[in-house]
Amino acid sequence: MVSAEPDLAIRVRGLRNSFGSQVVHENLDLDVRRGEILGVVGGSGTGKSVLMRAILGLRPPQAGSIEVLGVDALSWQARESGLIERNTGVLFQGGALFSSLTVAENVAVPLKEHYPQLPADMVHDLAMLKIRMAGLPEDAGAKLPSQLSGGMRKRAGIARALALDPALLFLDEPTAGLDPIGAAAFDGLIKSLQRALGLTVFLITHDLDTLYAICDRVAVLADRRVLVAAPLAEVERFDHPWVQDYFHGPRGRAAQAARAQEA
Ligand SMILES: Nc1ncnc2c1ncn2[C@@H]1O[C@H](COP(=O)(O)OP(=O)(O)OP(=O)(O)O)[C@@H](O)[C@H]1O
């Protein structure tokens, strides 16, 4: 069960995922290093979310191996022990908060599930701490998700993802639907949390600004596998039509120019 590569937070080898006759991944390999923010990009339908769900153990693959924090994620021991679940926080697309619970109650859900013996006032205090860490005002805790703006709902989702003090954070298109200023602020939050807490972050995004602002490396999904996983400068030079369109099309050029101006 102990990994031969302790600097890797996630190690995927030979992954195959399919739905009926549709093969989404074939022989896919990916490494995520401890303490990095890895941006995961690719065209729509290339299987970014399916990959995240496989790593999280939500949908077993047809073939391949997945190690998370040195543990074989596909083994029954990993599933039974809840070890990976306790060490991972997830922000799904749209936030996936319970609409009938307040923000504080939402953040308390994983705490109550994993630590049922914790006294209620301690659960509440911990939930409020995570809410503040996510950059929300104190009074957001008592509100329902429907009473928050889209950006605040995403912060509430981050607060819940941090509830169990995870080592790994999974974010599925965290800035989708945010205005550029809100998106930049959210990028800043992810980066500062990653630094302060030493998190490893697996970040699915279509947002070029996010890639340039906070990602240490970028993995590109295409042709059913990870084409390249490397620092941006290297990925930009990768010879593949999708990569060239994405990074050197009008939006890619704009994101690069914005970065150059800030530097
Ligand atoms: N439960 C499912 N049943 C059948 N097909 C599915 C299922 N989940 C995903 N797929 C298919 O797998 C492929 C990859 O889906 P996925 O959601 O991972 O793409 P994605 O890269 O995250 O796309 P997007 O950028 O649009 O969110 C798609 O063709 C999708 O239709």
Percent strand equals: 15-25%
Total DSSP helices:
11
Please identify, by name, the CATH architecture of the largest domain. 3-Layer(aba) Sandwich
Uncertain spans, ≥5 residues at pLDDT below 50? none
Reported for the largest beta sheet, the result is: 6 strands, mixed
Topology order in helix (H) and strand (E) letters:
EEEHEEHHEHHHEHEHEEHHH
CATH homologous superfamily classification of the largest domain: P-loop containing nucleotide triphosphate hydrolases
Mean pLDDT: 91
Overview of the structural elements:
By secondary structure, the chain is an alpha/beta fold. The chain has two domains: 1-69 and 167-262, Rossmann fold (3-Layer(aba) Sandwich); 95-166, no CATH class. Helix content is 41%, strand content 24%. The chain is built from eleven helices and ten strands. It has helices at 48-55, 76-81, 83-86, 103-114, 120-133, 150-161, 180-197, 208-214, 232-236, 241-248, 250-262, and strands spanning 8-19, 22-33, 37-42, 63-68, 71-72, 88-91, 168-172, 200-204, 217-222, 225-230. The strands form two sheets. Strands 6-7-8-3-9-10 form a six-stranded mixed sheet, sandwiched between helices. A four-stranded antiparallel sheet has the order 2-1-4-5, covered by helices on one side. Helix 4 packs across helix 5 (120-133), helix 5 packs across helix 6 (150-161) and helix 8 packs parallel to helix 11. The model has no long low-confidence stretch (mean pLDDT 91). The structure holds adenosine-5'-triphosphate. Residues 19, 24, 42, 44-50 line the site of adenosine-5'-triphosphate (ATP).
